[in-house]
Amino acid sequence: MFGFINKGLGKTAEAIKHIAPKKQLKISKDALEDILLETDVEYALVEIILREIYTDDVSREQLESKLLTTLAYSDYIEPEGVLAPCVDLIIGVNGAGKTTTIAKLAARYKNQGERVILGASDTFRAAAIEQLDQWAQRLNVPIISSRQGHDPSAVAFDAIESAKAKGVEHVIIDTAGRLHTQTNLANELKKIVRICDKAHSGAPHRKILVLDGTQGSSAIAQAKAFHEMIDIDAIIITKLDGTARGGSLFSIAYELKIPILYIGVGEQPEHLLVFDKYEFVSSLLDIIYFDDDISTTTSQLSEDDAEVVSFEEKMNRLNKRIHEDGFDLLSKHFVREQNTWNEYRFARNETTGEYEILEREGKVLRSYNIDEL
Ligand SMILES: Nc1nc2c(ncn2[C@@H]2O[C@H](COP(=O)(O)OP(=O)(O)OP(=O)(O)O)[C@@H](O)[C@H]2O)c(=O)[nH]1
Ligand SMILES: [Mg+2]
């Protein structure tokens, strides 16, 4: 799996190696800034990432904790208690990769032994219907479609009705990325959402925005526009294999605060990977740094020699421990629990010297003794 994600990050890796050709134990803050900007992390976020690093050289653990922090909202949690069929509504601008991604999702469901029906609700262009039809034939999955210009929400309705009648587990609905005006598009998408709910209460269960990874951080404004039209539940970032702008994923996650569900790393049905932030960050860090074990051992050795472990290093160790315990970051963390975001705060208890993760009401959930780290 790691090999696969690395393949998807090939061009981003080349860009990083251009700045830092050899793996290192620590990297200078300047080089790190260049790497982040070169891979299209937005400048404002680069500043945020670097501002609390007080050393000239940055260790793997330091950067790991910062990068994971920016991905605090990226975890996707499946909706619970969905009565089949589960309806995915796929939206995004023209050429973002919607239709290809639908094929990838359909292939994934099929491989899990689940049935799927496609709804060709991009009735704006005849070619869009044909393209989805070709995928349906290739993957041998049923498709509901009508002619160009027909009401897209009627197609969605029929696809859901058909799935209900046949007891099919999944419906995936394609949509147009562009209409004559933005208002037309917004109205059409809202109508599709309304009609889906009419066909099957609660549908669409997942409104998924497909973003073209080659556009990097410039896709953020576009995503915000869609999010305003209909609340997006999750994002799929496509074409990561075709771009050196892999770092934009951090900006996208940080700015939008919408979970990232999958990443697309090629044109074939199998080129869709579940987005795992730990795996993603780890793969990027592997390009810059020696692997985990070497750097920890070496830094521990030098710290033992120095006797006094710096505050920063303690914080890093603490952060690492928190990760191991399933938490994400140092100061603030939002966890999605049963469809609501709960804020967890993390603080130092001045009297005991212990670090505590506080609930919003101030109730201590867990504490760490920094001297034992
Ligand atoms: N390399 C690469 N190419 C991709 C990926 N996803 C999609 N593509 C390609 O991007 C192009 C556009 O993809 P489509 O799926 O047609 O995009 P769309 O959003 O449906 O486009 P419209 O229907 O025109 O709005 C196609 O040539 C796809 O093969 C990916 O993850 N990697
Ligand atoms: Mg399409």
Explain how this protein is built.
The structure is a single chain. The protein is of the alpha/beta class. It is built from 14 helices and 14 strands. It has helices spanning 2-8, 10-19, 29-38, 43-51, 60-70, 98-111, 126-139, 152-166, 182-199, 219-229, 248-256, 277-288, 292-306, 311-324, and strands spanning 26-28, 57-59, 86-91, 116-121, 143-144, 170-175, 206-212, 234-238, 260-264, 272-274, 332-337, 340-348, 354-358, 364-369. The strands form three sheets. Strands 5-4-6-3-7-8-9-10 form an eight-stranded mixed sheet, sandwiched between helices. Strands 11-12-13-14 form a four-stranded antiparallel sheet, with no helix packed on it. A two-stranded antiparallel sheet has the order 1-2. α3 runs antiparallel to α4 (43-51). Residues 293-307 have low confidence and may be disordered. The site of magnesium ion has 6 residues, from α6 and α7.
Care to give the gist of this entry?
The protein is of the alpha/beta class. It is built from 14 helices and 14 strands. The protein has helices at 2-8, 10-19, 29-38, 43-51, 60-70, 98-111, 126-139, 152-166, 182-199, 219-229, 248-256, 277-288, 292-306, 311-324; strands at residues 26-28, 57-59, 86-91, 116-121, 143-144, 170-175, 206-212, 234-238, 260-264, 272-274, 332-337, 340-348, 354-358, 364-369.
